[in-house]
Design goal:
Layout lengths: L2 E5 L3 H11 L1 E8 L2 E6 L24 E11 L7 E7 L6 E7 H14 L7 H8 L1 E6 L25 E6 L2 E6 L14 E2 L4 H14 L9 H7 L4 H8 L7 H5 L6 E8 L2 E8 L20 H19 L11 H4 L7 H10 L7
Helix pairs in contact: 5-8, 6-8
The chain binds iron/sulfur cluster (2 copies).
The site of one iron/sulfur cluster (SF4) has 13 residues, from helix 9.
C-alpha cells in the first residue's frame, strides 16, 4: 500500500494531471448545493462540505443512452426493412475524487444487482470497471449520518481505491486497491509515511464521534412481518408529499425506466432514473396500480432496503446510512425512525 502526502496547493495541479488521462469528477458548490461535476482548473472542488447529491451518476447516469437504432430498406429486396443496432457503452477511464466513504460503498449495492453471475448489465459494467474512487473520510458526522448502523463507518474503505484523510496543510492519500496505486504516482505527491500517524489519529477521532448504533439484525424480519399492516405504513407515511427527493439523491436507489426516442427512421434507447415514491411508478396500462397510496410506496422503499434486498443478498442492507433522504426530505420523513419503529412493533401489530 502506498502512502502519500498531497499539500493543499497541489490539489488542483494533481487533479489537472488526473484529468489528462481520466474523466475526473469532483464535488463542486452550485448555490447552496454541492454536486458532482467534471473537474475544471478554474473551479476549486468543494472537499469540506458533505455533497448534496451522491456520485451515482458517474456510473449510472440520470439519463443514459444504451444504444442507437436505425431502420433502412434492403437495397436488393426493397420489400424488407433492415434494423441496425449499435451498443453505446462508455469505457473511458474515469475517477471520482472527494466522495464520502458511504457513497462509494453504495455501488456495492448496485453490483449485486447489475453484475451477477447470471446477468450483467453491459453499460453499467463498462463504467464500473473503468471508474476509480478516491474517497475522503467524514471528520464530523452530521446528525443525519448513520453509516455505522448499516455496517459502514466514516473511514470505511469498502468502495474506495484511494482514501484521503485531511490534515491542516493537505491530505494523506493511501492506495486501497491495486487499481488505485497509479493515481498516486504523481511527482506532486510526497512520501506520506511520516504523516500516516497524524492521519490515523484523525480517522480514530472521526469514528469515535459517531453515536452508538442500534442493533438492526432483526430489521429484515420485523419489517417484513409488517407487510400487511397498513395502519403502520399509513402512520409512517402521513406527512410524505411523494416528491421523490429521497430516491433521486440516494446512492443505493437503482430503479430505472426505458424509453425509445426516435425521429424518422432512427433513434436511441434511453435509460433514466425512476422513482418508486411516485404514484405512476407501478401504474399499469390497464389503469390498475398495485401501490396506489403513499403508505404502499413508503412500505416498498423501506421494505426493499431493510428486508427484501438483504433477504436475497446475504443480509446486506441496501442503505449506506448517508442520511440524504432525511436531510433533503421537505417534511423530514426519517428512515431510521421507521426501521426502529418496525423493530419495536409488538408482535400483535404484525398482521
Ligand atoms: S436510504 Fe437514505 S440514508 Fe440510506 S443510502 Fe439511501 S439516501 Fe442514504
Ligand atoms: S423525500 Fe420525503 S416527502 Fe419526498 S417522497 Fe421521500 S419521504 Fe416523501
Amino acid at each position: 500500500m502506498a502512502v502519500k502526502f498531497l499539500a493543499k496547493d497541489n490539489l488542483v495541479p494533481w487533479l489537472a494531471e488526473l484529468a489528462e488521462t481520466h474523466r475526473t469528477i469532483v464535488p463542486k458548490r452550485e448555490g447552496e448545493a454541492v454536486v458532482f461535476r467534471p473537474f475544471a482548473k478554474e473551479e476549486a472542488p468543494e472537499l469540506s462540505a458533505r455533497p448534496t447529491e451522491s456520485p451515482k451518476s458517474a456510473i449510472f447516469p440520470q439519463c443514459d443512452t444504451l444504444m442507437s437504432f436505425r431502420y433502412t430498406k434492403d437495397e436488393e429486396d426493397p420489400g424488407k426493412v433492415l434494423l441496425d443496432l449499435r451498443e453505446m457503452k462508455d469505457e473511458s477511464p474515469a475517477v471520482v475524487v472527494g466522495c464520502r466513504s458511504c457513497d462509494a460503498a453504495g455501488f456495492n449495492t448496485f453490483d449485486r444487482v447489475y453484475m451477477t453471475d447470471k446477468i450483467t448489465d453491459q453499460n453499467y459494467r463498462a463504467r464500473r470497471e473503468n471508474t476509480l474512487f478516491v474517497t475522503i473520510i467524514c471528520e464530523k458526522p452530521a446528525t443525519t449520518c448513520f453509516c455505522n448502523w448499516v455496517g459502514g463507518s466514516p473511514t470505511d474503505t469498502s468502495g474506495a481505491d484511494v482514501r484521503m484523510t485531511p490534515l491542516e496543510d493537505g491530505w494523506v492519500l493511501e492506495s486501497i486497491t491495486e487499481k488505485g496505486e497509479p493515481l498516486l504516482s504523481s511527482t506532486l505527491l510526497k512520501d506520506g509515511d511520516d504523516r500516516a500517524g497524524d492521519a490515523e489519529k484523525i480517522r480514530q477521532q472521526a469514528k469515535e464521534r459517531m453515536p452508538e448504533a442500534p442493533d438492526l439484525s432483526e430489521a429484515p424480519g420485523k419489517v417484513l412481518a409488517l407487510f400487511e399492516n397498513n395502519d403502520f405504513w399509513e402512520a409512517e407515511s402521513a406527512k410524505c408529499i411523494s416528491c421523490g427527493a429521497c430516491t433521486y439523491l440516494c446512492p443505493t436507489c437503482y430503479c430505472f425506466n426505458i424509453t425509445d426516442e426516435s425521429s424518422g427512421m432512427e433513434g436511441v434507447r434511453l435509460r433514466t432514473w425512476d422513482n418508486c415514491m411516485s404514484h405512476q411508478f407501478t401504474m399499469e396500462a390497464s389503469g390498475h396500480n398495485p401501490r396506489p397510496t403513499k403508505a404502499h410506496r413508503l412500505k416498498n422503499r423501506v421494505g426493499h432496503k431493510f428486508s427484501y434486498y438483504p433477504n436475497i443478498h446475504d443480509g446486506n442492507i441496501s442503505c449506506v446510512g448517508c442520511g440524504r433522504c432525511i436531510k433533503s426530505c421537505p417534511v423530514s420523513v426519517d428512515i431510521r425512525s421507521i426501521v426502529l419503529h418496525a423493530i419495536a412493533a409488538p408482535a400483535e401489530t404484525e398482521k
